[in-house]
Amino acid sequence: MSARIGSLTVVGSGITAISHITLEAMNSIKTCDVVFHVVADVLTESWIVENSKESKTLIDFYIPGQHRRITYDAMKDSIVREVKKGRNVCAVFYGHPGIFVNPSHSAVKELASENYPVFMQPGISAEDCMFADLGVDPATNGCCSIEATNFLVYSRAIDTTVPLVIWQIGMVGDPTYDPQPKTSKINILVEKLCRYYPPSHKVCIYEAALYSVSRSRIEWCELIDVGRCEINGISTMFVPPLSSPEIDSYFLTKLGLSIDEGHIKSIP
Ligand SMILES: C[S@@+](CC[C@H](N)C(=O)[O-])C[C@H]1O[C@@H](n2cnc3c(N)ncnc32)[C@H](O)[C@@H]1O
Fold first, then answer.
1. pTM for the whole structure
2. Number of domains, the chain
3. Residues framing ligand 1 (Cβ under 6 A)
4. For the chain, how long is the longest CA-to-CA vector?
5. Which atom of ligand 1 is closest in space to residue 210's alpha carbon?
């Protein structure tokens, strides 16, 4: 089957207003026939409106009390419909457009299955900002990144030797959209974390700066006190590792390596 007329380019606007928009995202916003957008601040929204040929916000699909799945399907349908009219469509989501963004993935999947050209360009996510602000390298020892409600409702092995990033703590246990953060169930999250970490374990409530003139919020507290912290719709929790991993002597020897104070060395 040959490629169809019409295309979708999904881009991220990053976290810090305008300054996180990549050059390739800018180019897509400026050149596509129409730009759909869901962004977190008015500066970015105005920039998109001014720099696109035509733009439409998808924010109005968020209806308080409505299941987020219905909202996401309606956003996806709007994007897909416009592509199927033969237009080159750009969809902008804040942060990275493929991280905790349902309509971006579902639109790409549906259109790709019907042979429309689809592209997803990476953006700067909240987690990227967190690694920079907290000085954490997720590759050195690994990192577990998970959505708060998902973390609660599934049983899985938690590796306390790697950092744990928990997203959407401001809406834990609520599958509907609510403009106000829902924190009534935050202590249920704390209860589960206390199965793996001592109540005194220090965790961070993190909010990356939305504007280049503002600062990120980096608030450390004991796990047991999380319920007393202010939690917002943009709060993410960072849980540092509790201990170092055990050495796997079998593979260490097989590789001809040794470990000295955490540094991996070749055996001469
Ligand atoms: C639907 S997800 C969107 C993630 C976004 N696509 C990204 O790449 O960062 C919303 C969650 O992202 C996290 N988040 C969004 N903005 C943030 C910020 N400024 N600082 C820290 N976390 C943020 C929060 O955990 C929030 O509940």
1. 0.94
2. 2
3. 15, 93-96, 99-101, 125-126, 167-168, 170, 206-208, 210, 233-234, 236
4. 66
5. 19
